[in-house]
Q: What sequence folds into this?
């Protein structure tokens, strides 16, 4: 069992990603994959998002009516193709991994909302890929969010 990394450790893991990936520590490689996704969505670079996602990825969320909504990888990536540098900032909050499977929790601020992504990753033929993503969000203007900050 590889354990769990918290926010501070996740940031440190990303800074030493190259060295740790070479040493066989999966946290650097997992962080690299998720960072490609975050960078691709922050900088409107769909090729980076595509590198991070498995083709079978599905993004899932609950609609306002409570019903399950979903979007495939290609459709999700396409939404970033024509954007001009979205004002989107993301960070990794936690990584948990066992053998060839991992979960990552990330937080993204964009368009007046704070999104929380829960991602599942698999090490497929030596490469970590995001295979599924569940997202929830809150409006940043709510009094609850203002008090928490």
A:
């Amino acid at each position: 069992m590889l354990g769990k990394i918290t926010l501070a450790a996740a940031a440190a893991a990303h800074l030493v990603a190259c060295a740790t990936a070479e040493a066989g520590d999966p946290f650097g490689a997992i962080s690299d994959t998720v960072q490609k996704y975050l960078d691709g969505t922050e900088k409107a670079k769909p090729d980076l998002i595509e590198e991070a996602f498995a083709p079978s990825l599905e993004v899932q969320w609950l609609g306002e009516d409570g019903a399950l909504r979903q979007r495939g990888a290609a459709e999700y990536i396409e939404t970033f193709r024509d954007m001009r540098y979205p004002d989107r900032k993301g960070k990794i909050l936690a990584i948990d991994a066992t053998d060839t499977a991992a979960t990552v929790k990330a937080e993204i601020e964009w368009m007046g909302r704070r999104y929380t992504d829960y991602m599942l990753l698999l090490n497929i033929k030596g490469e970590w890929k995001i295979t599924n993503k569940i997202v929830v969000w809150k409006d940043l203007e709510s009094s609850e969010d203002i008090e928490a900050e």
Summary: The radius of gyration is 15 Å. Helices lie at 7-15, 17-22, 26-42, 46-52, 73-78, 143-148. The longest strand covers residues 127-139. Confidence is low (pLDDT under 50) at residues 7-23, 145-149.
